[in-house]
Design brief:
single chain, alpha/beta, Conserved hypothetical protein from pyrococcus furiosus pfu- 392566-001, ParB domain, 3 domains, 5-stranded mixed beta sheet
Length: about 280
């Protein structure tokens, strides 16, 4: 199929699409300028429900980059509705392309994997009504459905997509964070930190909203981590970082005697200096 040039004004972007990353849009716009003006065409279908001529299927960031450059038209593959899979299949394809082609944040990746798992449930008759909303934070780590879903992929695919039993387990927990909260933190540093997201997911929804508001404050003294935000809400001191010597001491205590002696030999000068300074 050959692409065709269509008017951007004729394209409707569905409202349920992921929030665009301005940095990624700007990067694409820069790449489209000058000699690098080529790009993979977006994909659309005739719009039968939204009042526009076309509905966007794939290429939201590319479309936004064209708009940012002030272009009125964009190259697109106009798909025949008969040849386009149902919404569930489209979502699976979008997830797969996102996981393979673009570096997603941990948050976006978790939502994609959770959605894919839910689609798998529905297609295999293993899903439960209201499962996505009702799924508790305390999801059992030996969740058989998650394991079955992960094993549905070859070893190579699991490696490329980063899908394993444990990653699905974490993704399902992170995906329980309400959509408005995910939206508000999607461009914050915590969106790319699994530990932070799991900590946020463990909080109640109303506390998640409060934490997100604190994290997105435009102030120098605004909390930078979920733990910091929780400390502000609970009015408790920030958790103190363990001193470096404590970490070394912990590791040293776990060494075999021969390895400890090797450590002493490597740091003999420092040990002698310390002993010299001690009072008799």
């Amino acid at each position: 199929m050959k692409p065709t040039s269509i008017k951007i004004a004729d394209i409707r972007v569905p409202t349920n699409r992921r929030r665009l990353d301005p940095a990624w849009v700007a990067t694409l716009a820069l790449d489209m300028q000058g000699d690098n003006g080529h790009m993979v065409p977006i994909e659309v279908v005739p719009d039968a429900e939204g009042g526009a001529k076309y509905k966007l299927i794939f290429g939201g960031h590319r479309l936004a980059a064209k708009v940012q450059l002030g272009h009125a038209e964009i190259d697109a593959f106009v798909r025949d509705p008969k040849d386009v899979a149902n919404d569930r299949q489209l979502r699976k394809r979008e997830i797969a392309e996102n996981l393979i082609r673009r570096q997603l944040s941990v948050l976006d990746r978790a939502v994609d994997i959770a959605d894919w798992r839910n689609i798998y449930d529905a297609e295999h008759g293993t899903g439960k009504a209201g499962r996505k909303k009702a799924r508790p934070v305390e999801i059992a780590e030996d969740d058989e459905l998650s394991a079955r879903f992960a094993l549905n992929f070859s070893d190579a695919a699991q490696a490329v997509l980063g899908i394993s039993r444990r990653s699905v387990f974490h993704a399902l927990k992170i995906a329980t964070i309400p959509a408005p909260v995910r939206e508000s933190i999607s461009l914050h540093a915590v969106a790319d930190n699994q530990t932070e997201l799991l900590l946020l997911a463990a909080e109640k929804p109303e506390r998640q909203e409060a934490i997100a508001r604190l994290l997105t404050l435009e102030a120098e003294d605004a909390p930078k981590t979920v733990a910091d935000a929780i400390a502000v809400i609970d009015r408790t001191p920030k958790p103190a970082a363990a001193p470096k010597w404590e970490k070394v001491a912990t590791g040293f205590a776990q060494l075999k005697e021969s390895d400890q002696h090797r450590f002493f030999a490597l740091h003999e000068a420092a040990i002698r200096q310390w002993l010299k300074g001690r009072k008799p």
